[in-house]
Amino acid sequence: MALLQSVDKKTTNGFHLSDREYHLIRDLVYAKFGINLTEEKRSLIVGRLQSIVKKLGLHSFTEYHEYVLRDSSGSALNTLVNRISTNHTFFYREPRHYDFLTQTVLPDLVGNRRTTTPIKLRIWCAGCSSGEEPYTLSIFLNEFVSKTGATWDVRILATDISDHVLKVAQSGKYRDENISKLPDRLRKKYFQSCGENEWRVSAAVRKPILFRRFNLMRKDFPFKGKFDVIFCRNVMIYFDNETKHALAERFYEVTKDDGYLFIGHSETLGRHASSYQYVCPATYRKERESA
C-alpha cells in the first residue's frame, strides 16, 4: 500500500478544504486505518475526494465527512480508503527477502519439522496490494518445495484494506511491466499469455493463496493459528511510531516461535523497539522462549 503523491493545489473545481475540514478527514483516516496524513498530503484529499463529493451532490468536505460517519454499511468508508491510497508494486520486489526465505528460513523449517508429514507452512502477506507479493512468494515456495522430496501443506493469507486492489489480485492478470523483474525462466514457467502484453498467473501459483479484506488497525487478530512468516512491506511507512510499534506487537502475538517478520527496506522497527529480535535489514525473528 502506498499513498498517492500530492499535487500543488488545495482547491479543485471550486472545492476548498479548510483547516477544520482537513483535520476532520485526517483524524478519521488515522482512527480507522492508521494512515498518518501529513500536512504535505492536504491536496491529496481534494484531488482524490472532490469528484466523490460532487457525485453525491454534497457541497463541502464537511458534508462529506458527515456522510461517511452516517453510513452504517461501511461502503463510504471503504470508498474513502480506496480513493486516498494507491499501490505501486511489482513481482520480485526487494529480492533479498526471497533469497533469505529460500536459503535460510525454509531450510531451517525443513530441519525442524522433517518428522512431520506434511510439513505445514503458514505465511501472511499483510498489505498485499494488487497481489504481486503473495504470487511471488508462491512461485519461490513452489520452486523450493519441488526440490525437497517432502510433502508440504502451504497456505498464504493475503490481505489488504482496499477491495479495489484485492479484485485485481484475485484476477491474477498482469501487464508486462509488472512481471519484468522476474527471471525469464520463472516468467515462462508460471505465466500464460491472456492478451496483448497481458499475462495470467498459473493455477499452481494461485492455489495456496487466500485473498481477504482486512484492516490492520483491528485491536484483535482473529486467527486460529499462528504464522511461520509475516510479510508487511512498505505499509508501515505511512504510520506514526505509536501505530507502527503497536502493530508490530500484534504481529508478534500471531507469529510462531522462531518465525519471521519481513518489512520494507525503507522501514525500520528499531533493534530494541519491539519484541522481535533483529536479524538483518528489514528482517526480524521471534525467538523461542527458554524453557
State the gist of this model:
The protein is an alpha/beta fold and 291 residues long. The chain has eleven helices and 14 strands.
Report the sheet-strand fraction: 15-25%
- Based on helices, strands and strand pairing, what is the structural class? alpha/beta
For the report, how would you describe the main beta sheet?
7 strands, mixed
Q: Could you tell me the number of beta strands? A: 14
Return the average pLDDT rounded to an integer: 87
Main CATH class of the largest domain: Alpha Beta
Helix coverage percent of residues? Answer: 40-55%
CATH topology of the largest domain: Rossmann fold
The number of domains is: 2
Report the total helices.
11
CATH architecture of the largest domain: 3-Layer(aba) Sandwich
Q: Taking Cα atoms only, what radius of gyration do you get, to the nearest Å?
A: 21 Å
Would you kindly provide a written description of the structure presented here, covering whatever features stand out?
The chain is α/β, with parallel strands linked by helices and about 290 residues long. The chain has two domains: about 1-85, Chemotaxis receptor methyltransferase CheR, N-terminal domain (Chemotaxis Receptor Methyltransferase Cher, domain 1), CATH 1.10.155.10; about 95-285, Rossmann fold. About 40% of the residues lie in helices and about 20% in strands. It has a seven-stranded mixed sheet. A three-stranded antiparallel sheet has the order 7-9-8. A two-stranded antiparallel ribbon has the order 1-4. It is globular and about 65 Å long. The two termini are about 40 Å apart.
